[in-house]
Specification:
By secondary structure, the chain is mainly α. Helix content is 77%, strand content 0%. It contains four helices and no strands. The chain has helices spanning 9-24, 28-53, 65-86, 90-112. Helix 1 crosses helix 3 (65-86) and helix 2 packs antiparallel against helix 3. It is flat, with a radius of gyration of 18 Å.
Length: 113
């Protein structure tokens, strides 16, 4: 089982993917389910935010900021597992995408200056 105290995030994600592969395989159906799981976790994050705000007048506030943070972490981990299941070097893919996003924001800031 993965060591959640590992300092190497991507190694832990790799261990989670290996565990899923051993238990569920990695056929096209399983890959689809791993991507769909992101939507499920996102829905739980939305539910936590609505519950934190007490937005539903029929119910009092039902979630805390910590509940929301926990659900957002589930979204992130689930997306990282899905990414790691569909590309050979998820760290490189993620870092390249993050760099593109940061560069785009930096370019927007430069235009505003």
């Amino acid at each position: 089982m993965p060591d959640p105290t590992s300092t190497d995030l991507w190694s832990t994600i790799g261990e989670l993917v290996a565990w899923l592969d051993r238990n569920n395989g990695r056929d096209p159906h399983e890959l689809t389910l791993r991507v769909m799981k992101i939507g499920e976790e996102f829905g739980e994050a939305v539910e936590a935010r609505i519950g934190e705000l007490g937005q539903n007048p029929r119910k009092p506030a039902s979630h805390t900021r910590q509940d929301l943070a926990d659900e957002l972490c589930d979204v992130i981990v689930t997306a990282m597992v899905a990414l790691s299941s569909v590309v050979d070097d998820p760290r490189a893919v993620f870092e390249a995408k993050l760099r593109k996003i940061a560069d785009r924001v930096s370019a927007l800031e430069d235009k505003r200056a």
